[in-house]
Amino acid sequence: MNPLSLYIHIPFCVKKCAYCDFVSHRVSDFQVNNGIERYMEALKLEIGHYTKLLAASTVMTIYIGGGTPSAIDGAFIHDLIDYIRKITDLDKNAEITIEINPGTLTTEKLNHYLSAGINRVSMGLQTTNDTLLTTLGRIHSTNDFITTFNAVKTAGIENISLDLMFGLPNQTLQDIENALSLIRTLKPTHVSAYSLKIEEGTPLYESYEKGEVTLPDEDLERAMYHAIEKGLRELGIEEYELSNFSLPGFESKHNLVYWKNEPYLGIGVSSHSKVSNTRFSNTSLIYQYIESLEAGNLPIDETDDIDKNEDLFESIILGLRLNKGINMTELSEKYEIDFLGKYKEVLESLIHSELIYIKEETIILTTLGRDLANQVFLQFMVD
Asked: pTM for this structure?
């Protein structure tokens, strides 16, 4: 049986955040005309199209993201996972994650998650500064987050990840320290720390263009990142990837699939997949997605074959994101190349610039290399 991971997109939110450019819709707009029911049934129809693939696979991870999956009735999630169990071999130690937002979780939903076998929760803290939360368009306060976090933990789900954002408008180093103080109290198993990216077409982008919000400069942003790295390390929450930190043994199994360039199947509107040597993605139009599946068709919008050089490049840049780096011998065997010979000049230049170091056939980013990771990645774009 081949290992496979599933990503399932639930594109519903109570309210779209000001910085979000993901495909998502207000849940209230779909609570009429059975919109949510139709979408959830469409997910099962799409999964049904992949019965052969799933029957030949062992599903190692399921990640239910969005949107805000906890914005819809918990019974929908429960029913979907039960359906997946019927048609595929789910590994007995499978990691099953759901994203939830404070202010959307109820006891009924939590009971459904537990009964369905969900064993990991990802929650968006973002910041403990309530004024900044309002600027971001978040629907929760810090107290809401604390209440929800404790409810999840009390229910018996110990594996809880939280999202932390830095580089926010008018954010200070003290804001970062305040967030670290809360993390010290709550004791999550995993933290994802993201720098704010202002995406065109979002309300925050419009405010930025009008000069209504000011972002920290690059030096302050990096100082925030290093403060997070240091603060989490002191709590035993170690960095294992450029944006991710965990207690030992609590690394995100699902996200490791992406960073190791392994196969995954995306289900839902706008979802992306990589299976064998093919990458494909679904339409980002929700009604087109639903209607295609109701008509018996897959909603695939784009398909690309991945050649060996492209796949090698992706394995390099994704693998270098991991603190453990990439092994030259393993890549040489997988892609039938002389890795050291192919990239000799690139490696020498990066070592000279103190952006990487090599330890026992493994290439690892230095601290400076992690700060300048994108520049490092570009150096490997050679024929």
From this structure: 0.94
